[in-house]
Design a protein that fits this description.
This protein has 468 residues and is an alpha/beta fold. The chain has 22 helices and 8 strands. The strands form 2 sheets. Strands 2-3-4-1-5 form a 5-stranded parallel beta sheet, with helices on one face. 37% of the residues are buried.
């Protein structure tokens, strides 16, 4: 039994979903007899590059072509569909990238077609060829025989040498709109007797990221997994994705600076057997969706989430990375945006000092101090102690006066105060490197018994990071 994406692969130009600009150019060239000797089909994976190449070759060799469309019934059409036509050679440059393969193509191109009107060479992922192979191919493209057509497919056009590009007609394939993918999925479901909700098909289309082949492959995977009606839940389970409510809880915790909620989500995801990189990718996708719907506050996390998606794959202990990164990100959104605000609830015994300081400082002085504090936080985030960064980001008051850095916590942030007190040496070293020789005054307003358990969890977490 063929896979669905093979079973429903287009056989004619009219069956190709989207890519109208490409179809129009090729069909006109076929009808007018002005087909180029070499094409580059460039674009994202699963958007129809190789399929279109085969249809073009069928049209050129079809015995009963109607306009630009191959008949699909003659010997040439059937043989090309089955991959047995001797005059069509397909090469995967990802695994056959050397000069020897290109030399064979160069030698074969010099002979006339055996079965059809044209010889066609379809080279997939052409950007993977070696420099020597490209040079050999260039010689053939410069003086091609009239009976030969080259179709070079690539997902990375920028890696193809300009000398090759200049000798080919470049046609760029685009990601397919979600509505076209959903329409095609519905057609396949009707033919196969698959019962799927509209929400599930929309979710599959979103996960395919504009690629029709990927969308059909996901549909088949979910269908075989569920064995019944396909809904959003079955899609998430089949693909190993995380429930959207969990992702929403994670983003909510980050944007509200709720460290406990963020830690709970990361641990729950990890111990449920899901991958940490899936958490970040799903969070990034949801953040982008929220931005598209007008919730601009999610702009503040997209860059960091994108970085996490790239970085986590290089870490062996992904849970520790996920916890450290998530705590760092949530710390940016506690009572502050980058630098803690001055005294939302200032300590009573500090009010007079603050007023004196404000009287002495000019706006320029205040701005300079804030810039210095940002510099300190940025250093801690990238090169310093991550635990110190998170705790310092949660401070209710952070100011520099008369050669002293004052750090004040409200009573409900005892765990952050204790974290800095236990890591005072690391803090002093970071301050010295960024702000110079300043004294450090740590204080906490009032008494609190809250967060003792949470304090232990955070200290334990960063102990694991140091050991790992």
């Amino acid at each position: 039994m063929d896979a669905l994406y093979r079973k429903y692969r287009p056989r004619k130009f009219s069956e190709i979903v989207g890519q109208d600009h490409v179809k129009k150019i090729l069909m006109r060239a076929i009808v007018e007899g002005k087909v180029s000797h070499a094409y580059i089909f460039a674009g994202p994976r699963g958007t129809g590059k190789t399929t279109t190449a085969r249809i073009l070759v069928k049209a050129l060799n079809c015995e009963n072509r109607e306009g630009a469309e191959p008949c699909g019934k003659c010997y040439a059409c059937r043989a090309i569909d089955e991959g047995t036509f001797m005059d069509v050679v397909e090469l995967d440059a990802a695994s056959n990238r050397g000069i020897d393969e290109i030399r064979k193509i160069k030698e074969g191109a010099s002979f006339r077609p055996i079965e059809g009107k044209y010889k066609a060479y379809i080279i997939d992922e052409v950007h993977m060829l070696t420099r020597e192979a490209f040079n050999a191919l260039l010689k053939t493209l410069e003086e091609p025989p009239p009976h030969v057509v080259f179709i070079l497919a690539t997902t990375n056009l920028e890696k193809v040498p300009p000398t090759i590009i200049s000798r080919c007609q470049v046609l760029e394939f685009r990601n397919l709109p979600k509505k076209l993918i959903i329409k095609r999925l519905k057609e396949i479901c009707e033919r196969e007797g698959i019962e799927a909700t509209d929400e599930a098909l929309e979710y599959i289309a979103k996960k395919s990221m504009g690629g029709m082949r990927d969308a059909i492959t996901i549909l088949e995977q979910v269908w075989k997994f569920s064995g019944k009606k396909i809904d959003v839940k079955s899609v998430e389970e089949a693909l190993g994705l995380i429930d959207s409510d969990v992702i929403e809880k994670y983003l909510d915790g980050v944007l509200n600076g709720d460290i406990e909620k963020v830690m709970d989500v990361v641990n729950d995801v990890y111990y449920s057997g899901k991958e940490m990189d899936v958490l970040f990718q799903e969070a990034l996708d949801m953040a982008l969706e929220r931005i598209e719907s007008g919730k601009v506050e999610y702009l503040n996390v997209t860059q960091d989430l994108l970085r996490s998606v790239r970085e986590i794959k290089f870490f062996e202990n992904k849970r520790i990375y996920a916890l450290a990164f998530s705590l760092s990100l949530a710390g940016k959104f506690s009572s502050v945006q980058g630098v803690p605000n001055n005294a939302k609830e200032p300590a009573e015994n500090s009010e007079k000092e603050e007023n004196v300081s404000e009287a002495k400082e000019t706006p320029e002085d205040s701005k300079g101090i804030q810039d210095d504090l940002r510099k300190l936080l940025e250093y801690l985030k990238t090169d310093g102690d991550l635990a110190v960064y998170v705790a310092l980001s949660l401070a209710d008051e952070l100011r520099v006066e008369n050669g002293t850095l004052y750090i004040v916590f409200s009573k409900d942030k005892e765990f952050s105060y204790l974290t800095l007190r236990e890591r005072i040496l690391e803090l002093e070293e970071s301050v010295r490197k960024t702000l110079g020789d300043l004294k450090i005054e740590l204080s906490m307003t009032g008494e609190s018994k809250r967060a003792e358990e949470m304090k232990k969890r955070i200290l334990s977490l960063f102990g694991e990071i140091e050991e790992g």
